[in-house]
Amino acid sequence: VDLSKVKFWRLTTTKIAGYDVIISNSGYTGENGFEITFWRIPRSEIDNFIKVYNEIINAGKEYGLKECGLGARDTLRLEAGLVLYGNDIDEDTTPFEAKLDYAVKMEKDKFIGKEALQKQLEEGLKKVRIGLMMIEQGIPRPHYEIWYGNEKIGIVTSGTYSPLLKVGIGMGYIKPQYDEVNREIEVLIRERRVKAKIVKWPFYDESKYGRGRTNVP
């Protein structure tokens, strides 16, 4: 399979270790990458996915392929500003609140949820998603409170220490009127308010990191 011909958000099918797989140019790290999905595998052979995995690892050794876990994946997706269902979005969060407007085409005549979204646009948003970067030492974690002055304005939904940026970063939801890039806020960490600021995502320099990097050898 010539993966160079598989464009972003497109997929192809092939076989690995004798099993049918779907290879999609999607990924959840912010980097160029592919996701491999096993399909049409009999339930009695489901444990054989390890054969597929091992074949991929062995084939990639000469290219420096290394394994990583969910912790690394979660750090990468957060640095890229990608949302995690159950943390940053759920069935009670709208695309407008999450700043995922591109996923909604309001000009369409009908779609499930259009009336609710139209009403929300007319009445105004009650919360919006932000990126935050710690100014003082500290790591934001889900459910930590976000403060501005003497007012609690929101809550953290995802947070970690960024190995790339050497600082704590996170995402959360705050009242829309406080959503201003570089505005100083505070995150309540272990009963102490720690200074942070509102930032755009991705958190890194896109010319150096991520799918849009320009410094690829």
Notable features of this structure?
217 residues, Gyrase A, domain 2, Elongation Factor Tu (Ef-tu), domain 3, six-stranded antiparallel barrel, three-stranded antiparallel beta sheet, 3 helices
Give an account of the 3D structure:
- This protein is of the alpha+beta class.
- The chain folds into 2 domains: 3-67, Gyrase A, domain 2, CATH 3.30.1360; 74-199, Elongation Factor Tu (Ef-tu), domain 3 (Beta Barrel), CATH 2.40.30.
- It has 3 helices and 9 strands, in the order βββαααββββββ.
- The protein has helices spanning 49-60, 70-79, 114-123; strands at 11-16, 19-24, 35-38, 128-134, 145-148, 151-162, 167-174, 184-189, 192-199.
- The strands form 2 sheets. A 6-stranded antiparallel barrel has the order 4-7-6-5-8-9. Strands 1-2-3 form a 3-stranded antiparallel sheet.
- β1 and β2 (19-24) form a beta hairpin.
- The model has no long low-confidence stretch (mean pLDDT 95).
Which of globular, elongated, flat, extended, rod-shaped describes the shape?
globular
The helix fraction, in percent, is 10-25%
Q: Rounded to an integer, what's the Rg over CA atoms? A: 21 Å
Q: Give the structural class.
A: alpha+beta
Average per-residue pLDDT, rounded, comes to: 95
What is the H-and-E element order? EEEHHHEEEEEE
Number of helices: 3
Overall structural domain count? 2
- Spatial strand sequence of the major β-sheet: 4-7-6-5-8-9
Q: Nutshell version of this structure?
A:
The protein is an alpha+beta fold.
